[in-house]
Design goal:
The complex is a heterodimer of chains A (444) and B (174). With 444 residues, chain A is mainly alpha-helical. In chain A, 52% of the residues lie in helices and 10% in strands. Chain A has three domains: 3-129, Zinc/RING finger domain, C3HC4 (zinc finger) (Herpes Virus-1), CATH 3.30.40.10; 136-186; 251-390 and 423-444, no CATH class. Chain B has one domain (2-76, 89-158): Ubiquitin Conjugating Enzyme (Roll). Chain B has helices spanning 2-16, 89-95, 128-140, 151-157, and strands at residues 22-26, 32-38, 50-56, 67-71. The chains are: A mainly alpha (444), B alpha+beta (174).
Chain lengths: 444, 174
């Protein structure tokens, strides 16, 4: 049978009225190999897989439906994970017989059936023979259930009320027999301890007062082991040292209770404080590295100090609840102080560095300014002749870039000599030289 | 129904016999159990330590995996004040703080990255006992004294249920 067939065969095994064999109460001990590894009950309608593992049909079905990937033809064996395509309904007869042979109690044991029988026979017992099986009352107007054995021979409703002549209690007809013989409070019974005969309803009162009943000493909860007849307990209680102590014990007990209560309160408060501390610490730890990364590493030893102090204070914690709380508070405050110090320190450092940086930059800027000024002066000085001699600007344009202000006067004076072509372009060089006598040259 | 039945059977079996190093610490209801595990060989990382596991079972257990994580202390309901002399060894044992074992697949909040506990790796044949033994052997085999990468971030920001965390099971060595 493949998986799909196996899963669709589910319908007929969940028939109404079938005894749930798994919920039966086993009387005999059975071998653990007869136990389904899924439900841990003896196999019910066992099936076998290719890997020879056996499961209840119903258990395997629920396992397949939850472990198979949707609609695939294969699933892993729950025991060994072998990929399985087929479910074999043929299980060795021996196995089924052994499971059916396990002795169980009738499922109607609450109704009074005391039968124990092989599991294989339970279904037929319940269906046909069990006299205690509840069936609907033959009277159609009555919606109660009736035991099968009470149904015959007269097929009448037994749910009408009947009054007991002795105790005047209303009892249902089906329960009347039992009530009459055993339960009626007006029946007489004998006390098992003193042997006097009393009516049932007085029994409870009698047991509390019966002089023959063995009862424990009143101080038994403080450890007195004595258990004697009630008639003699008075004598014992006068001598029992624990009874003499009992008021003291009581007082101690109430004190302990009180203390316990306060301690619990304190514990709760403590927890709240601890939570708060943890919160604060985590926020501080989060923010501290971010603030410190910008500045120099000088703050590292400060955080170390802080950790140390936290450690120190935490060792103090364990001494005692109240001082613990106080020290917790103290250490919290200390920590906050330290942190604020650290922050101010950081702040100072940061502003110092900023100040230093800006000073240097200012200096630099002054230098640059000066340089720019001198350049401007030179440019101006250069530009002056050009402004004065507008028409010659075009010729000069290509030579301006190549000119060097530091040219020696000697080189400059010899310049026009070697090349006649350079003459007109070199001519304007001369006036730029500060050492040169200057402008007359340009007038050439 | 299915879950409670199966769990009560498992509990009965655990009461009869538990594997060495594993014990039931709390099983008073069938929705949450606590188990103590010890690493038995002389792995220096876990020597003389008892770790507490919390199992939370859904209604569909064992078809669905339980949520399993390490915890540091028992539920606050069992806490008693230190001033009271406590003779009950069981409650005392429940109150001693436990640590979360160091392991490259165990986050410091106790969440365990183990494919066996995921919906994909789970199999209904697993039991509380077998899960405990798997975790025990996972600790035994470990030699690294470290947490998973990104532990702090995960511990701070994970608010999802354990089942919904998209773990990646890339490490086949452990």
């Amino acid at each position: 049978m493949n998986i799909h067939e196996f899963l669709s065969a589910e319908a007929d095994c969940d028939r109404e009225g079938l005894v749930d064999l798994r919920s039966l109460d086993c009387v005999s001990h059975y071998d653990s190999h007869l136990m389904c590894p899924i439900c841990h009950c003896a196999f019910v309608q066992p099936v076998r897989l290719q890997c020879d593992h056996v499961f209840c049909g119903k258990c395997l079905r629920s396992a397949i439906t939850s472990f198979r990937s949707t609609d695939s033809d294969v699933f892993p064996c729950p025991s060994c994970r072998t990929p399985t395509y087929e479910v074999l309904t043929s299980v060795p007869r021996l196995l089924i017989n052994m499971c059916d042979d396990i002795r169980v109690r009738c499922p109607f044991i609450p109704e009074g059936c005391q039968e124990t029988l092989p599991r294989g026979h339970v279904q037929s017992h319940v269906d046909k023979y069990c006299a205690y099986r509840p069936v609907p009352c033959p009277d159609t107007s009555c919606d109660q259930m009736i035991r099968q054995k009470d149904l015959y021979p007269d097929q009448k409703c037994t749910h009408g009320l009947q009054q007991c002549p002795r105790c005047e209690e209303d009892v249902m007809e089906q329960d009347y027999e039992e009530h009459d013989k055993e339960l009626c409070p007006s029946l007489e019974t004998t006390c098992v301890d003193c042997g006097t005969t009393i009516v049932r309803r007085e029994m409870k009162k009698h047991v509390e007062a019966c002089p023959e009943v063995v009862s424990p000493c009143a101080a038994s909860k403080y450890g007195c082991p004595v258990k004697i007849r009630r008639a003699e307990i008075g004598g014992h209680e006068q001598l029992c040292p624990l009874i003499a102590m009992s008021p003291y014990f009581e007082a101690q007990n109430t004190r302990l209770d009180l203390l316990e209560l306060t301690v619990r309160h304190l514990q709760q408060r403590n927890e709240i404080f601890e939570d708060g501390l943890a919160n604060i610490r985590s926020t501080l730890v989060d923010s501290a590295p971010a603030g410190m990364s910008g500045a120099s590493g000088g703050n590292d030893h400060q955080t170390d100090n802080m950790d140390e102090s936290v450690d120190r204070s935490s060792s103090v914690f364990s001494s005692n609840a109240t001082t613990y709380l106080l020290s917790l508070h103290e250490s919290l405050r200390e920590e906050v102080d330290q942190l604020s110090h650290a922050i101010t320190d950081l702040d100072a450092r940061a502003s110092m560095t900023i100040l230093n940086e800006s000073l240097r930059i200012k200096e630099d800027m002054a230098h640059t300014n000066a340089a720019v000024n001198s350049v401007r002066m030179q440019v101006q000085w250069l530009m002056n002749p050009r402004l004065h001699h507008g028409p010659r600007a075009g010729v000069r344009a290509n030579t301006v870039g190549g000119n060097d202000t530091n040219r020696s006067p000697l080189a400059a004076s010899s310049a026009p000599g070697p090349s006649s072509t350079a003459g007109p372009s070199m001519g304007p060089l001369r006036p730029r030289r500060p050492s040169d006598s200057g402008r007359e040259g340009t007038k050439l | 129904m299915f879950a409670t039945k199966r769990l009560s059977k498992e509990l009965l079996k655990l009461k009869e016999h538990v594997p060495p190093g594993i014990s039931v610490a709390k099983s008073d209801n069938l929705e949450e159990w606590q188990m103590d595990i010890k690493v038995l060989d002389d792995n220096p990382l876990y020597q003389n330590q008892t770790y507490r596991l919390k199992f939370t079972f859904g209604r569909k257990y064992p078809i669905e995996p339980p949520e399993v994580q390490f915890i540091t202390v028992a539920a606050p309901s069992t806490s008693t004040s230190p001033s009271e002399p406590n003779t009950d060894t069981d409650t005392e044992r429940n109150n001693t703080p436990h640590s979360i074992p160091m392991h490259p697949h165990i986050y410091s909040n106790g969440i365990i990255c183990l494919d066996l506990l995921s919906s994909a790796g789970w199999s209904p044949v697993q039991t509380v006992e077998s899960v405990c033994m798997s975790i025990q052997s996972m600790l035994t085999a470990n030699t690294k004294n470290e947490r998973p990468p990104g532990d702090a971030e995960f511990v701070n920001y994970n608010r999802r249920r354990i089942r919904d965390i998209p773990f990646v099971y890339e490490d086949d060595n452990v």
